[in-house]
Hints:
The protein is α/β, with parallel strands linked by helices. It folds into 2 domains: 5-223, Rossmann fold (3-Layer(aba) Sandwich), CATH 3.40.50.300; 228-286, Alpha-Beta Plaits, CATH 3.30.70.100. 32% of the residues lie in helices and 28% in strands. The protein has helices at residues 45-52, 96-104, 112-121, 137-149, 167-182, 194-200, 218-223, 236-243, 266-275, 290-300, and strands at 5-16, 19-30, 34-38, 60-65, 68-69, 81-85, 155-159, 186-190, 203-208, 211-217, 228-232, 251-255, 258-262, 282-286. Strands 6-7-8-3-9-10 form a 6-stranded mixed sheet, sandwiched between helices. Strands 2-1-4-5 form a 4-stranded antiparallel sheet, with helices on one face. It has a 4-stranded antiparallel sheet with strand order 12-13-11-14, with helices on one face. The radius of gyration is 24 Å and the shape is elongated.
Amino acid sequence: MSTDLVLQTEHLKKHFGKVRAVEEVSLQVRRGEVFGFLGPNGSGKTTTIGMVLGLLHPTGGRVELFGQEVTPGRNRALQRVGALVGSPALVPYLSARENLQLIARLHPDVSRQRIDQVLAIVGLSEAADRRAEGFSTGMKQRLGLAMALLHQPELLVLDEPTNGMDPAGMREIRTLLRSLAEQGVTVFLSSHLLHEVEQVCDRVAVLNKGRVVALGSVGELLGKQQEVVRVRVSSPSEAARRLQSLPGATSIKPNGAYVEVAGVSGQVVVLHLTSGGIVPSEVSTSRPDLESLFLELTQETA
């Protein structure tokens, strides 16, 4: 495995009886990148993360962290990993600081200064001595992230880290993840907030039915998507029939009072319609985003 690769999965599979939760997942995550891991519910994301963290034995294939194979019985490489998966395991009657002190017992090199540092990083300095049971969902997520960061991991595995946070908190976490990546920390981010992923991730993998259906940088994946021209007309069915003869149009879809056309420019669509006596009352162009790509990929393979 290349020294630039922090995480690698090869032909990873996990079956639970007749249920094929993960069927074919091959990924390479490079040092210092923020890697987005996307997929609808039931796509196999959580099962894949379980194998990455050595919680589940693969049915087939393998997981490597820092060049070492990882299984439930072989997990030394996990000492270099921090994780926040699901709701953090907090002791409710302890304060944020005391929860971190409890975790620090597992890591002899963690100092008091480091505890103060991670509390500041996640924005909990002022709440450090409050009991966790009184925290909001967003504050609990922040404390869970502080726990994951406590021992200065080289790889951070996060599953929905901004759950319960307000927009300002989400923005702070997004800034934090980019800052960590600039410091050489690798972030593996599983999230359903596609707009957030689009802004923060260097590369993404889209998973559906246990298989990777798209992999690459956000720019590369969106570059393959075509802009959609949306025209409002008095008779969408008539306009759609007229557009069937338009060279270059790859998709023509009536949608209520509109017709949506892909593969050609708005100017070409308007000229073609007006030459046939159909004058649109409204024309707009939508740029592809990660959400539209995600929906297209997961619906096509559903």
